[in-house]
Amino acid sequence: MSRRLRTLMAALCALPLAFAAAPSAHAADPTTMTSGFYVDPDSSAKRWVAANPGDGRAAAINASIANTPMARWFGSWSGTIGTATGAYVGAADQRDKLPLLVAYNIYNRDYCGGHSAGGAASPSAYANWIAQFAGGIAGRPAIVILEPDSLGDYGCMTQAQIDEREAMLTGALTEFNRQAPNTWVYMDAGNPRWADAATMARRLHEAGLRQAHGFSLNVSNYITTAENTAYGNAVNNELATRYGYTKPFVVDTSRNGNGTNGQWCNPSGRRIGTPTRTGGGAEMLLWIKTPGESDGNCGVGTGSTAGQFLPEVAYKMIYGY
C-alpha cells in the first residue's frame, strides 16, 4: 500500500462513522492517490538501452523515450496474468506512482487487420483471463486501456461475432468494477480515421461504456492531438444526444508529434509527441504505445514483428526524420 493511501486510510478511520461510510473521492480518481505516473523499469526501450550502453543512439533514446511514463501491454506473453498485473501495480504502488496497463488479449484480436492477430482461445477463456487481470490489480490505483482495436474495425465481422465481442468487453468492465475499484478503465475507441463519431458512440455504448470511466483514442497511431480531441468531443456529442451521457477520453500522443502521413503501419518521418500529462482538451495525454516498437512486418519495420523494439526507428522518431 502506498504512503498516500496509508495516510488516507488512517484519516478515514479517525472520522465520524457516518462520514467515513460515504464513498471515498479517491475511489473515483486514482490520480489523486499517487504522485505521478510510473516509469516502467522493464520497458523494451529500457532493456535496449541497458543492453547497448555503448551505442551512439542510447543516450538520446534513454533521455527522450525510456524515462517517459508509458503503458505496459499485457497479453498471452505475460504468463499467469493475475500474478503479472499484481506485480506491476504493486511495484508502482511501492513508489507511490500510477501505472498504465493495456489489456490486449481479446478473443479474435485484430481479426480484420491481422498484424497483431491472436488473443484468448475462446470467449470463456478471455472472461477468465480478464477476471484474473482485474483481480491482480485489486484495490491499488491504476489506469487500464481496454483492448485496443476491438471496436475500430468491424468490416470483416459477422453480426454474431460483433455481439460476441461486445459481450466480452461488457463482461470485462463488470470485472474491473467488481474487483478493481480504484482503477480507471478506458474502452478503446480507435481513431478519427476508422469510424464516424455516431458509429463509434453506438459501438461504445453497446459494449458497455456506461460502466467504464472513459474511452481512449489514437492508440498506436499517429494522428494529431487536435484531430483526436475534435473526434472525442464529437463522440461525446453523439453519446449525449443518443444515450444521455458523456465520458472523459484520453489520447495516445506517443508517436503523433508530426501527425500522420496517411499510413498506420511503421510509417517513416514520424515523431514522438507530448509526454504523459493531463489536459490538452482530453482528460489525459498518455504514451500508450512505446515509440520505436514495431507495428508489424511493414513500412520502416519490414522484417520485424509487432511489438519488437527497433532502435533506429526510435532514434529517428526523437528528431522527426
From TrEMBL:
Active-site residues from the entry: 149 (proton donor)
SUPFAM superfamilies per the UniProt record, alphabetical: Glycosyl hydrolases family 6, cellulases (SSF51989)
UniProt-recorded Gene Ontology molecular function terms: hydrolase activity
UniProt keyword list: Carbohydrate metabolism, Cellulose degradation, Disulfide bond, Glycosidase, Hydrolase, Polysaccharide degradation, Signal
Cross-referenced Gene3D superfamilies: 1, 4-beta cellobiohydrolase
Keyword Signal part of the UniProt annotation: yes
EC number per UniProt: 3.2.1.-
Region forming the signal peptide: 1-27
Pfam families assigned to the protein according to its UniProt record, in alphabetical order: Glyco_hydro_6
Keyword Disulfide bond: yes
Similarity annotation: Belongs to the glycosyl hydrolase family 6.
PANTHER family from the UniProt entry: 1,4-BETA-D-GLUCAN CELLOBIOHYDROLASE C-RELATED, PTHR34876
Protein name: Glucanase
Source taxonomy: Bacteria, Bacillati, Actinomycetota, Actinomycetes, Kitasatosporales
